[in-house]
């Protein structure tokens, strides 16, 4: 080691040219540590013949020879035999990818690993991603790695942005017991994970995000909630999603999936939605262990599979395929609700100020329908009962209830008039 002690304006500065590094640290991309200046004096300890440990204090500035990497701390301990540098107090580390501050840090030159502890704050200077937490480990590109990697524990807070994001792009705010990142586009988190933006919020046991591929997933007790004018909620054992131009465009929940919106509720093994302009536009549901069930304000529909159209997240049409069954959400005092069955069911809705209002219910293929029909000429009287069968049955509704039922094609049915109330017995006291 070459060293020169100089005095400038009454203060001691130690200028070291190049500290010795192991042979493995001389490869391409590996840091050859240079101590640029120090505000105190150098103390060295020979641990075995020709092998030294160095301790420098009073403010230390260092760099990697031939690289843009810079380091600063209050003091440094350099262990030549381990290719290790310990930085203590007001640590600042910066390379071409990241700028980091911490209370202390350990840099292992041999495998280009930086471990930081205490009030850690890292900012990716290329993407604007930031991480704040009690610790992190940063693996720089090189030493057998084609890109940088980063991990942290004890619930750091991350504002994550990708390569293609502009400086003002909205980040994904990630919290988890443990997080890990690879390059500038792939992220993992585990342990009570939350991910938030202005358009949605998600929770799960673990999560994965790949911004370059535009894919990700939430695993374990997963749920995604739309924010703002996207008032929906989706939950399941795990949830997959796709992104396009940093916007959520498709989401699918598996195993005990459940979804709700202002107009409907959907339950199935698997539920998926198409999303545009941050709102659900349509979706599908199916399953093997549980038949999908869709409930609007007026009706509940079950079938082997269900599809819905909801442009602008306003329910327009529900379709049930395979053994479809629709039942009215009747008063609890009724013995049996109104219902309709068929190979395929189609429910159409009109948008109102209070939500989606059922306008038409159609059964196609082996249709059957059971309805109570009130007589408008006898308000308050018991309703009659109509039962119909046919290849196609169409029930039409007004905002106040059922208007008419049409059977199209071969069919039959019956109508049961309500039993007239018997006259009141005479008053025996007269």
Q: What class, by secondary structure content?
A: mainly beta
State the helical fraction: under 10%
Poorly predicted segments: 1-28
Number of helix segments?
A: 0
Task: Name the overall outline.
Answer: rod-shaped
Tag the structure with descriptive keywords.
lipopolysaccharide transport protein A fold; 430 residues; mainly beta; 29-stranded antiparallel β-sheet; two-stranded antiparallel ribbon; disordered N terminus
How would you characterize this protein structure?
It is rod-shaped and about 120 Å long. Strand 6 and strand 7 form a beta hairpin. By secondary structure, it is mostly beta strands. It has a 29-stranded antiparallel sheet that branches. Strands 1-2 form a two-stranded antiparallel sheet. The protein starts with a strand and ends in a 14-residue tail after the last strand. The chain has no helices and 31 strands. The N terminus is likely disordered. It has a domain of 140 residues: Lipopolysaccharide (LPS) transport protein A like domain (lipopolysaccharide transport protein A fold, Sandwich), CATH 2.60.450.10.
Short description:
The chain is mainly β.
Furnish the topology, listing elements before pairings.
Blueprint: E1 3-8, E2 11-16, E3 33-38, E4 42-48, E5 51-56, E6 60-64, E7 70-73, E8 75-79, E9 84-94, E10 98-108, E11 113-124, E12 130-139, E13 149-153, E14 157-160, E15 172-175, E16 178-182, E17 186-196, E18 200-210, E19 215-226, E20 233-244, E21 247-260, E22 264-276, E23 279-286, E24 293-296, E25 299-302, E26 305-309, E27 317-328, E28 339-352, E29 355-373, E30 384-398, E31 401-416
Antiparallel strand pairs: 1-2, 3-6, 4-5, 5-8, 6-7, 7-9, 8-9, 9-10, 10-11, 11-12, 12-13, 12-14, 13-16, 14-15, 15-17, 16-17, 17-18, 18-19, 19-20, 20-21, 21-22, 22-23, 22-24, 23-26, 24-25, 25-27, 26-27, 27-28, 28-29, 29-30, 30-31
